Amino acid sequence: MMKLTNFALCVLALLPITLTAQTLATSATQTQTANDHHGDEAAIQQVMNRYHAAIQAHDGAAFAGLFLPDANLWLNVLTDSAYARAQAKSPTTQKVRVSNYRDFAKLVTSTTKNFDPEHSNLVIHTDGTIAVLYFDFVFNVDGKANNHGSETWQLVKAADGWRIASIVYSSEPPTQQ
């Protein structure tokens, strides 16, 4: 039979106290991190709300202000079925179209059409410094669905708050009758 020294007995006696203290400290840290992330998620949701409002108000400057100034990645990827339809009309159609937020901001400012994007099934992942949004969308123009698909935004938390770094979305325009 093994003999335990007084030191070993003290260590064994203190082990539950140490583990409880570590668990409480970890739990407090996790709670604080969760609270921070909820605040970040709310701030990111506000970016999406301002995005929507700027489009509806035809406010290209407010829209552009949601992006990092040097961010230029805006990818529109046609779904396979939309690509096949587009190629049937024009064989030179590109499946992936590269643009930037500045071009869309100009369109938002210059159009007389009523743009009304709808967003659903929003998922936000963030560590408090970077974030990814993934959601489904329907882009309505003058009250009719003009496009739908899934969309992802990559955001960064800049010194002055959350900014969009890039947008990538699938595109499934309605079939023309």
From TrEMBL:
Signal sequence region: 1-21
Family annotation (Pfam families): SnoaL_4 (PF13577)
InterPro entries attached to this UniProt entry: NTF2-like_dom_sf, SnoaL-like
Domain of life: Bacteria
Keywords attached to this entry: Signal
Domain SnoaL-like: 40-166
Annotated SUPFAM superfamilies: NTF2-like
Keyword Flavoprotein: no
Name of the protein in question: YybH family protein
Species for this entry: Acidicapsa dinghuensis
